[in-house]
User: Fold this.
Amino acid sequence: MTNYYPARWWQTQESGKILCTLCPRYCKIGSGQSGFCFIRQNLNGQLITTGYGHPTGFAIDPIEKKPLNHFLPGTGILSFGTAGCNLGCKFCQNWSMSKAKLDNLNALSVSPEQVVALARHHKVPSIAYTYNDPVIFGEYVIDISRLARSAGIRSVMVTNGYIDKQARKEVYEFVDAANVDLKSFTERFYHKLTFSHLADILDTLRWLKHETSVWFEITTLLIPGENDSRDEIARMCSWILENLGDEVPLHFTAFHPDFKMRDLPATPSSTLKMARQIALETGIKYCYLGNVYDREGQTTCCPQCHKPLIERDWHSVHSNILIEGKCPDCEHKIAGVF
Ligand code: SF4
Assistant:
């Protein structure tokens, strides 16, 4: 497979540079140059993507690792990413891929048909576009997810939500579920630590809720001193409730010192528990804790009668007593895809 796959979502400017319109960074890319994400390049006046067809490897992960707790719980998911990313998070937990160029990662050559065949071979019901941000290899996502859907296999985006309004309609056309990072609830954090903007992420979340049928959950990595104040968490939970309703699962996950933020401590479990309590008191029905051992914080309970329904430990499902997506005691319907 060629390394030079023609990109969608761009236009030529009067200056001769290419304007990439895939994400709100809107890079202006001179001849021979790459955009911020490394894998979209101006080659002789045409935008090409070097990520198409070039994953950096595959794994079968538990779907709880994405994390998705209300989408086919207890199943495996074929997972892959490419090199590069459209954000520049200083705390990136996967920087060896997101900050790498493809050449440095010995990327594979795998067609969309082969990705779907791999999922079938491993008998998994879904494919995750993950590890780095799949927005930047949107063309590959579209081709795989289209084929996967016709083969009865679901597609999952694990993403930062930083995507252009027009492009997202195309990238998500055959996507069934997503986990979207809401990395903080301040523009200061987004601007300083990720080189992006909070408003764009909130817009994607509202769009997913109100204009698509994509099942999605939200993840916030709590970083000590940066996004873990009571006030910020409370404002974020209120926004979610008001704009997305009470049934979008929210995951608070523990930070571990990494990349350019090695001088901070890991998130204490007391902070995670505090955040979960705020979410539940705000009215969010499903709130989970991740990157820690916490049975209570990882169990799905019936919001009506409080019976434990799906018990997890880290990424393992220990029991699932849902019957056709409902609580067996009070028959309350649990939001999600079961
Ligand atoms: S997708 Fe990449 S090249 Fe395009 S605007 Fe975003 S960061 Fe820039």
